[in-house]
Design brief:
The protein is of the alpha+beta class. About 45% of the residues lie in helices and about 15% in strands. It folds into two domains: about 210 residues, Endonuclease III, domain 1 (Orthogonal Bundle); about 100 residues, Alpha-Beta Complex (Nucleoside Triphosphate Pyrophosphohydrolase), CATH 3.90.79.
Length: about 325
C-alpha cells in the first residue's frame, strides 16, 4: 500500500474543483435534489433519515409519498404515530420513523415549527447524529460542516492512504477540504463519489474525477468482513373472510417493530406458498397457510377490511404477503 499522506499534501482547491465539476455533470437525478425545496431543512432531514441503511431506489417512492402527506414539520407533528408508521411500512428500521415523529413534535413545541439552525440544537433532536446534522446544515443552510458517512470514510481513507477508526477522525481530516462557497454540494459530491465510483470492492478508478490525487488508487486500508446472513424460517396464517383479513399487533415492548400489525403465526391451513424477505442480516423464508373463516380466532387481534389494513402500520413482510396472495396493492 502507498505510504500515508498528510492533509496538507492534498491540494484542497484542486480537489474541490475536480470533485464539484464532476458532481455538476454526473450527479444522480434524485427528488430531494431537483425539487424547489431542495434547500428546505425539513426535506433534507426527511431524505437523510430515510437513506440511513437503505438503498436510494427504495427510498424514492417513500420520500415522495411522505412529503405529499406531510409537507411541513407541523403536518408531521400533528399526525398520529400510527399514521406515520403506516407510511413508513416496508422501509424498515421503524425506530427512525418514531424518532422522526418525536423530533417533529419537539421542533413545533420548542422552536415554533422552525427547523433549528444551530449545530448543538440540531444534534439534540431525537434520531439525529453528527452526520445527519452536518448534512442538513451544510445542504440547507450553507454551513461549512462535514457530513461523514461510510462512503466518505472510504473515500477519505483511499485519498489519504490511511485508516480512520472513527467518523470524528475523518471529520478532522477533511475539514479543510470543504468548499466554503458550496459546502452542501461538496459533501454530497464526496458521498456520491463513494456511492457510485469509489465502491467498496470494485472501485471504478478509471472514471474517478480525483484519481490523480488518490494515494491508494482503489486500495482500502481497512478490510471489513461481510455481515453473516442468518437464515430464518417462519410460518404465518393468512385468515380471510370476504374482503377482510385477520391481523395481530406486535406488543409495544417488542424487541423488533413494536406496535406494527402482522399476520398471526401458524400452519393449520392450506399451504399457499412462501415469501422471501430480508431484515438487516436475517434472510427470512415465510411459508404462508391460508384459512377462510369468519369466526373470531382465539388470539387477540382484529378483522380489517382491505382499505383499513393497507392504511395500518404493517410489517414489510405482511404487506408483501397481502400483495402476493390477495393481490392487495399498496
Amino acid at each position: 500500500m502507498s505510504k500515508s499522506v498528510s492533509q496538507a499534501e492534498l491540494p484542497p482547491q484542486k480537489l474541490r474543483r475536480a470533485l464539484l465539476q464532476w458532481f455538476d455533470h454526473s450527479r444522480r437525478d434524485l427528488p430531494w435534489r431537483h425539487s424547489a425545496r431542495r434547500h428546505d431543512p425539513y426535506c433534507v432531514w426527511i431524505s437523510e433519515i430515510m437513506l440511513q441503511q437503505t438503498r436510494v431506489a427504495v427510498v424514492i417512492p417513500y420520500y415522495e409519498r411522505f412529503l405529499e402527506r406531510f409537507p411541513t414539520v407541523g403536518d408531521l407533528a400533528a399526525a398520529s404515530e400510527e399514521e406515520v408508521l403506516s407510511l413508513w411500512s416496508g422501509l424498515g428500521y421503524y425506530r427512525r420513523a418514531r424518532q422522526l415523529h418525536a423530533a417533529a413534535r419537539l421542533i413545533v413545541s420548542r422552536d415554533h415549527g422552525a427547523f433549528p439552525r444551530k449545530h448543538a440544537e440540531v444534534l439534540s433532536l431525537p434520531g439525529i447524529g453528527r452526520y445527519t446534522a452536518g448534512a442538513i446544515l451544510s445542504i440547507a443552510d450553507g454551513q461549512c460542516l462535514p457530513a461523514v458517512d461510510g462512503n466518505v470514510v472510504r473515500v477519505a481513507s483511499r485519498l489519504l492512504g490511511t485508516s480512520f477508526k472513527t467518523p470524528v477522525a475523518t471529520e478532522r481530516a477533511i475539514a479543510g477540504w470543504i468548499d466554503p462557497a458550496r459546502p452542501g454540494d461538496f459533501n454530497q459530491a464526496l458521498m456520491e463519489l463513494g456511492a457510485t465510483v469509489c465502491l467498496p470492492r470494485q472501485p471504478q478508478c478509471l472514471t474517478c474525477p480525483v484519481h490523480d490525487l488518490c494515494r491508494t488508487r482503489g486500495e482500502h486500508p481497512v478490510t471489513r468482513p461481510r455481515a453473516r446472513t442468518i437464515a430464518v424460517e417462519e410460518e404465518y396464517l393468512l385468515r380471510t373472510a370476504g374482503d377482510r383479513v385477520w391481523l395481530v399487533q406486535r406488543p409495544p415492548d417488542a424487541a423488533r417493530m413494536p406496535g406494527l400489525w402482522e399476520l398471526p403465526a401458524g400452519s393449520n391451513g392450506t399451504l399457499l406458498g412462501s415469501v422471501k424477505h430480508a431484515i438487516t442480516v436475517h434472510a427470512i423464508e415465510a411459508r404462508v397457510y391460508g384459512v377462510t373463516s369468519g369466526r373470531k380466532p382465539k388470539e387477540h387481534g382484529r378483522w380489517m377490511e382491505r382499505e383499513e389494513a393497507l392504511a395500518a402500520p404493517l410489517t414489510g413482510l405482511t404487506r408483501k404477503i397481502l400483495r402476493r396472495f390477495l393481490d392487495w396493492k399498496a
